[in-house]
Write a structure and sequence with these properties.
Blueprint: E1 12-18, E2 21-28, E3 33-41, H1 43-56, E4 61-66, E5 79-88, E6 91-99, H2 110-122, E7 135-138, H3 144-155, H4 166-174, E8 178-184, E9 187-197, E10 202-210, H5 219-233, E11 238-244, H6 248-256, E12 260-271, E13 274-284
């Protein structure tokens, strides 16, 4: 049943201004995590503010994407889980995590996840042929309800962001997220999005969902390929995606589309009732 999402689960911004530093933190109650979004001044003090903020709210994880020269400030309390090449307008980002809940740092099934990565990397690259049975286009505000229905049918209410709320979907569009649709006549059968950062010239390929009745027809691969074209039109430099580590399909699709594997974020977010490890994939799409 579609409904307006509980505002208490929505991420919100916290600003910390202290002597020698200034930082912007994103508190994410649903996923029990806090992320350092930006900072000025002392990197060490910003790292400490991130940890203190996460602890004060009882969160299980603290996250920061940082530049190479900032890594020493995080080395004591954080672990490096991977990187996203080109994330900062061509400069690599290193994905640092601190686990404030000891149970949160244990991967769900590393052996299975590693086998999926090996299988994905062994697949041949896709040829780029789009299934002619379906039509593809950019979503508009008028599609918010049908998108929310699709996401609810696939994920229920258990997704890192409340995509089963049409109001949230519409707000995301207004904030710059590009939703790309696959349709069969008037039926919405699949969708994915680009969560763009125009200043840093990157975007996350995310919110991938295919109606169960339409699976096995290459729709997800088609959506990923077309979002790359959208990214190029927007003048972006690189795309990245965080894929569920224990699902072969999306990892195979990303590898076949030319993405490279760069690490794994352990128990990073809640999907379908529990925390999921997320694989990091990245692809440069322009110079």
């Amino acid at each position: 049943m579609l409904k307006n999402h509980d505002q208490r689960r929505s991420p919100y911004t916290i600003r910390r201004d202290g002597e020698g530093y200034r930082s912007v933190l994103l508190a994410d109650p649903y996923n029990s995590r806090m992320k350092l979004m930006s900072h000025d001044g002392s990197t060490r003090l910003s790292a400490e503010a991130l940890l203190k903020g996460a602890k004060s709210l009882g969160y299980g994880k603290a996250i920061a994407y940082i530049r190479n020269e900032e890594r020493p400030a995080f080395k004591d309390a954080f672990v490096e889980e991977g990187k996203i090449p080109g994330f900062f307008n061509g400069v690599d980002a290193y994905c640092m995590s601190a686990y404030l809940d000891s149970t949160r740092k244990k991967p769900r099934d590393s052996e299975k996840a590693d086998k999926i990565i090996s299988m994905a990397l062994a697949k041949e690259k896709a040829g780029g042929k789009i299934n002619p049975k379906f039509s593809f286009r950019r979503a508009t505000a008028a599609d918010s309800m049908s998108l929310a229905r699709l996401y609810y049918s696939v994920f229920g209410d258990s997704y890192p962001t409340p995509l089963s709320d049409p109001g949230f979907v519409q707000d995301a569009m207004q904030s710059g997220t590009v939703f790309w649709l696959a349709t069969d006549g008037d039926t919405l059968c699949g969708a994915a999005s680009l969560d763009t950062d125009r200043e840093m010239r990157n975007a996350e390929v995310t919110d991938c969902a295919v109606d169960p009745a339409y699976r096995g027809q290459g729709l997800l691969a088609d959506l990923v390929v077309q979002l790359e074209d959208v990214g190029k039109e927007l003048g972006l430099s690189c795309l990245y995606s965080l894929s569920r580590a224990l699902l072969p399909g999306i990892n195979i699709v990303l590898s076949a589309a030319g993405y490279e594997y760069y690490g794994r974020l352990v128990n990073n977010c809640r999907i379908c009732g529990g925390y999921e490890d997320m694989n990091i994939w990245q692809k440069f799409i322009s110079g």
